[in-house]
Design brief:
elongated; 5 helices; eight-stranded mixed β-sheet; 196 residues; 41% helix
C-alpha cells in the first residue's frame, strides 16, 4: 500500500470515527432533553365545546402535541400576551399537522361562542387552535384536577401557565405564558417531542 492509499484509508477511518462520535453526542443530547420533559400526569377526562359547537374531549389530545392555556376575552393584562405567544408558536409550526393549540375560557358566562370566534380572528391563522368553553365547574375541575393549575378567583385569578401535553395525553411541562423567553423553550421542547 503506497503512501497516498494509506493516507486515504486513514482519513476514511478518522471521518467514520467522527461520524460515530457525532451520532453518540446527538443521541445523548436528545436523551438529556427528554429527561427535562418527564411525564407529570395523564390529563383527566373532560368535555368542552369549541366556538363552532364541536365537542372537544381529552380523546382529541391523543396523537397530537397540545399546548393549553386558560384565558378570557375581556382580559387586558396577561391574556393578550399569552394569546400573542400562542400566535407566534402557531406561525412557527404552521406546516406541522402534529401540533394543536387549546385556549380555554375561564369566563364562560361572558365568552359566548361568537365572542370566542371573534377573539380567535385576532390571533389564529390556522384551524389547529381551539377556543373552548363549557360549564364553569367543569373548567375549574379541568384546571385544578386535570391539569394541576390554579383556578381561584376567576376570571382574573386564572393561571397564566402554558401546559405542554404529549401525543399520549401526558402533561410534560409547564411554562410561564407571559414570559417571552418561554417561546424558545416551548419551541425546543416541541421539537424534542416530535423527534421521539
Amino acid at each position: 500500500m503506497n503512501w497516498l492509499s494509506r493516507k486515504i484509508t486513514f482519513s476514511f477511518f478518522i471521518i467514520l470515527s467522527l461520524g460515530f462520535l457525532a451520532l453518540f453526542v446527538i443521541d445523548k443530547a436528545v436523551e438529556s432533553r427528554l429527561n427535562n420533559l418527564p411525564i407529570i400526569s395523564n390529563v383527566s377526562n373532560f368535555e368542552l365545546t369549541n366556538f363552532d359547537n364541536q365537542k372537544f374531549t381529552n380523546d382529541q389530545l391523543v396523537g397530537k402535541l397540545s399546548l393549553i392555556s386558560f384565558i378570557f376575552t375581556n382580559c387586558e393584562d396577561a391574556c393578550p400576551i399569552m394569546s400573542s405567544h400562542f400566535s407566534i408558536l402557531q406561525k412557527r409550526f404552521y406546516d406541522s399537522n402534529s401540533i394543536q393549540f387549546i385556549s380555554i375560557t375561564v369566563d364562560p358566562s361572558f365568552d359566548s361562542k361568537d365572542i370566542l370566534k371573534d377573539y380567535s380572528k385576532n390571533y389564529s391563522i390556522k384551524d389547529n387552535w381551539f377556543f373552548l368553553t363549557g360549564d364553569l365547574q367543569a373548567i375549574i375541575s379541568l384546571a385544578e384536577d386535570g391539569l394541576f393549575v390554579s383556578a381561584a378567583l376567576l376570571p382574573t385569578g386564572h393561571s397564566t401557565r402554558f401546559i405542554l401535553v404529549d401525543q399520549n395525553a401526558n402533561i410534560r411541562r409547564y411554562y410561564e405564558g407571559t414570559d417571552e423567553s418561554s417561546i424558545f423553550e416551548i419551541q425546543n421542547d416541541i421539537l424534542t417531542l416530535l423527534d421521539t
